[in-house]
């Protein structure tokens, strides 16, 4: 007895802990989109990439600042033999003994003209930042769309689970009625077995629906960055609306195209940087030096200022191929933009057709529900009057259940296709 009570207590504690670990939460579709684009692991990686590009742009702006260097040197040496050639006014030389040298230098170089290299390098970093930002937005839109698909798939699984649960209650009552009639000799045992078999099939379908809902729930939690055991409440699609007038609106420029155009700007900036090598670099320079040779000489206040010029002669014969590479990159980006535009046009056309098809299909599903309901009523009357058999009644019941499940799937599919169209036409707002 003690073992039995101990096992029961452990079971209760385990059940309570598991229930506590499962946090229940209700999410609207707008919240799902917001979480997918801000809290998911993929979204955080995309944000980090944009931040890195921004920091590289800030780093590039520092190239406009002067270069400053300070150095100091101490040298220990042996005592050299020094023959000083400077006339001293006497016939005797000096006995100079030194074994230490101190040297300090400060130099500052300020670029004045670089042929546009600095300016275009900064512009390249800025355009690269823009390209990364647009690419991140495009990726986040796809993340949000994946979340929408999972959210609607969860709705479909939950609806199937609830509808099957309702049918199980009705099938249990039907099986109980059949059993009573079989015991009273009104129906054959075979009819009772058919009703019980249908009840068993419903229960199997119910377990499968639970499994499907749990799997999709877990996938959605992972995508949204929620605790993995969060249980999402039953979804209500009343507020999950997409704008149907989008079919008549003009298309907006997709973020993929904006990213490619920014990449083209980067390539143009790099081409200008490469061409800048043909021009000289002019810079202002200044410095300060101090020198002390022990027992020999001390130099202080040795300041200097001036203008310097440098020119890389090798660029005259090395730069041509670099320019050709940059020009080829520009040409490739033009081809990619054209190819992406064609792909987007195809996606828009397909998305519009899918929306129209889903609307027509959903209308037919609504008609089918009414037809299945009326069919079940007629078959039930015939069965009660002995005109229809058990097979007809059970089949009509299955058809009624399937029509309700199809309608739930059709409603979710229509919303899903609208969001596909929003993404394809550039109207998917993830903010």
Automatic annotation (TrEMBL):
Any Pfam family hit: OEP
Predominant cellular place of this UniProt entry's protein: membrane
Keywords: Cell outer membrane, Coiled coil, Membrane, Signal, Transmembrane, Transmembrane beta strand, Transport
Keyword match Membrane: yes
Coiled coil is among the record's keywords: yes
Superkingdom assignment: Bacteria
Annotated signal peptide: 1-21
Record's subcellular location: Cell outer membrane
Residue runs in coiled coils: 154-181, 243-277, 341-382
Entry similarity comment: Belongs to the outer membrane factor (OMF) (TC 1.B.17) family.
The name this protein goes by in its record: TolC family protein
Organism from which the protein derives: Sphingobacterium oryzagri
Lineage: Bacteria, Pseudomonadati, Bacteroidota, Sphingobacteriia, Sphingobacteriales
